Automatic annotation (TrEMBL):
Region of interest called Disordered, as start-end residue ranges on this chain: 1-20
Enzyme Commission numbers on file: 2.3.-.-
Transmembrane segments: 32-51, 57-78, 98-115, 156-185, 197-219, 225-244, 251-268, 288-306, 313-333
PANTHER family with a match to the protein in the record: ACETYLTRANSFERASE, BLR2367 PROTEIN
Biased composition (Basic and acidic residues): 1-12
The protein's name in its UniProt record: Acyltransferase
Organism whose genome encodes this protein: Sphingomonas rustica
MF-aspect GO terms: acyltransferase activity
Amino acid sequence: MRGEEGRAEMLERPSAGPAGHDEYQSIQCLRALAALMVLVYHVGTTLSVLHDGPVRPHWLTAGVDIFFVVSGFVMVVATRRRPVGPGRFLRARMARIVPLYWVATLLYAALLVLQRQGAPSLEELLKSLFFVFYTNPRTGEPTPLLVPGWSLNYEVYFYVMFAAVLWLSVARRILVLGAIFAFICMFRPLVPADDALLFRLTSPHPLEFVAGMALAYAASAASRLPAWSGAILIAVAFAGLATIGTGLSRVLFFGPFAIAIVAGAVIAEPLFRMAVLGPLRRLGDASYSLYLTHPLVVTLLLPLLAPGTAVAGAAITMAIASIVAAFLSYHAFELPIAGLARGWIRGRRSNAPATEADRPSG
């Protein structure tokens, strides 16, 4: 795959490998695992209304931290061999994430109205759709209307900053973004607790993206390590997440484990190519749909469950229904929209003068 079409495809495929035509199957599997972690956590949160006491382990929310590390990794891999301009990069990323997010957000708003939970205000809806951090009046937290969308706000924040340093070498991108995000984090103690925008912008979460970038930079060296050592690193990291209790903040606790899991996956890449993991890799393809559509499925199913419903049965039903809906969304919506987006991006470039960064790369 070469030239303009090749670059568009690389930017839209979430785990393009360093060969330019291959993929990191380990990253695909991690995307599936991370989405499943978030799904199970949210199912447990929802079912807590049917059960006395919590029914979800908090460490499962680390799936989002894994997503952040993976995103930083993928952005470096997707751009280091096929240079791309900032505008083209941002168009490709927005075309990848916006359509499904907007549709899911609007459907969720309609669902709230149908279930008489209150229609969102126009301001709330617009801030949600355009990735503006604000305090959700329903949750009291700095989340958008579709709660999992808070991570997309960080994704967009990272994409804008990443686009601004695309002209630098990979090593310098890592150093510059790391320094910028670390500097911004220093202002966190000065931020009012009720200022959602400043609270989110001064979070250390963006440093997880930078860690993923660093892992991509070191991927060639990591691939020379024994695959079994990567598998052990993954197992130890997950065990630590599930068993270690700490008073540290979320990023300081989840971040190192998420970084270790992604590093282990890159080292253990040969193991993730086994045929038995095929279903997990396919779920990785649909992980974005799973991440965004499962709140709709869970919200739809909850009223159908009687207060005395067995928690295990309800959880399994919600999880299976969410996975089925994710595959339907992926094949019926994500793939067709991705094809249209590639055509749109190529069309935009056909009317603009080529720059050195936009020329075929080999």
